[in-house]
Amino acid sequence: MRLLYCGDVVGRAGRQAVLDHIPALRAAWALDFVVVNGENAAGGFGITGGICREFFAAGVDVIVTGNHVWDQKDTAAYIADEPRLLRPMNYPAGAPGRGHGLFPAAGGRGQVAVIQVMGRVFMDALDDPFAAVAEALDHHRLKQGGVDAIILDIHGEATSEKMAMGHFTDGRVSLVCGTHSHVPTADAQILPGGSAYQTDLGMTGDYDSVIGFVKEEPVRRFVTKRPGRRFEPAGGEATLCGVYVETDDATGLATRVVAVRLGGRLAPSGPAPLPPASSSGLVGGEMAEAVAGLHQGKGPDTDG
Predict the structure, then answer these.
(1) What is d(CA 295, CA 109) in angstroms, rounded to the nearest whole number?
(2) What is residue 82's predicted lDDT score, i.e. its pLDDT?
(3) Is the pTM for the entire model greater than 0.70?
(4) pLDDT in tens, 192-205
(5) 68 is catalytic
(6) Which CATH number does the domain 2-266 belong to among 3.50.50.60, 3.60.21.10, 1.10.10.60, 3.40.50.11690?
(7) Which of these is catalytic: 21, 68, 155, 180?
């Protein structure tokens, strides 16, 4: 099975990257299942039902969220009736929506369980994410009960907590990855037990920014230590960041993991072939050659 998970979508620029790239990637990479973190999609704060519908129409199978899940007033009502929109499952009992589910993959290729929790280190003090994941994995076991792949997201601040979750679930999930920091980590790997892992997928947003927001106001606040204007999402071309995973049909464990970066300012990465179009000046075969060079330890030629 071929899986794509895209990191936190920030504002209009991030949304446009999803709408522009996902349909082409589904075809180019023969994707069976696509997950997107959409918790910053609505002006940088939360997500709306309308945005969810746009993402689903573009080929996204499941949307996960995080600590900004309740920022938009209509989300509580929408999430209660839309099983494809998840919130961290370790919210206290009674929170609207759900934190895990089993969903069909494309073309009858099987079913994918998606689980999301939120970390507690430097975050809101929710219920124990490790206990919540253990409970979810009692419901969803790889290659049992029609579960062909399992994707686990830990939305959190501390890299140590995310790495601990990776080792806690290694061999029991297809992919465990982190979101929330808006900066992609360089540690995409297959853990010893067979689970694909990346500490943080980064954001799908404009990287000429401070974690996706127009630079001036965050910088001013750091310098002056005084509140000011509302943060606004940066509007330049976004980089779609995430991770691509291939799984073994017999075990559901990972056989390949590749960090994904497409468009915008960051160096391109992903499984070849890559679809055309990039503001880096690399298109079509040129971009695929650049990616091949990256996998061989070479940087892309961006001179001129």
Answers:
(1) 29
(2) 97
(3) yes
(4) 999 999 999 999 99
(5) yes
(6) 3.60.21.10
(7) 68
